Amino acid sequence: MRIISAVSVSAAFSLCLVSLVALAGYPENDAATDTRHESVVPATLDLAQDAAYAYSHKLPMVLVFAAAHCDYCKLLEQEVLDPMYISNDYQDKVVIRRVMIDGLRTLRDFSGVATDADSFAKKYNIQVTPTVVFVDHLGQEIAPRLLGVNTIEMYSAYLDKAIDVSYQVIQTRATRID
C-alpha cells in the first residue's frame, strides 16, 4: 500500500487549481494583473486636440475605454496595445488613445467641452471594460466596437481588422472631399 504525503496532495491540488484557472482564460497572477503597470498608450485629456491631429492626417481614432481596476484592460494593454504602439507600425494608420473611465481628471470631448471621463463614457454607452471604439474626428463610430477580451491570442487580428475598416472609411471620405 502506498502512502501519499500531505505535501504531495497539496502540490497536486495547487497544480490542478493553476491548470483550471489557465483553462478558464482568466488572467493569472503575473504581469497581466500587476497594478504597477502603466500603459505606453496615452490617456487622453483633450479629444478635440487629438481629433484635430487625426483629421489633418486623415486618420481614424481608436478609443480604448479602460479602468484602473480592470485586469483584462491591463492584459490587453500589455499583450496587444503597448507592443502595437511601441512598434510605430500604426502611427500612419490610426490615433490610439486610452480613456480611463475611473480617472479623476477632467477631459475635453470632441467639441472641446470639459467633462469627466465617466460622463464621456456614458455618451458611448460603455458598460464593459475594456471596450475599444473606432471613431472619426467628430467622435462618430465608423467600425464595430470590440467589447471585453475573449481570447487574447486572437484579439490582435480582430483589432487589425477593425483598424483596417476604420482607415478605409476615413480614406474614402477624404477622397470624396479632395
Instruction: Name the helicity range.
Output: 40-55%
Computed Rg: 20 Å
Mean pLDDT, all residues: 83
Instruction: Summarize the main sheet.
Output: 4 strands, mixed
What is the helix/strand order? Answer: HHEHEEEHEEH
Number of helices: 5
Order of the strands making up the biggest sheet: 2-1-5-6
Number of domains: 1
Give the oligomer, counting copies of the same chain as homo and different chains as hetero: single chain
Strand content range? 15-25%
Any guess at the CATH architecture?
Answer: 3-Layer(aba) Sandwich
Looking at CATH, which topology would you report? Answer: Glutaredoxin
CATH homolog superfamily: Glutaredoxin
CATH top level is: Alpha Beta
For the terminal residues, how far apart are their CA atoms? 85 Å
Which structural class best describes the helix and strand composition? alpha+beta
Tell how many strands the DSSP assignment holds: 6
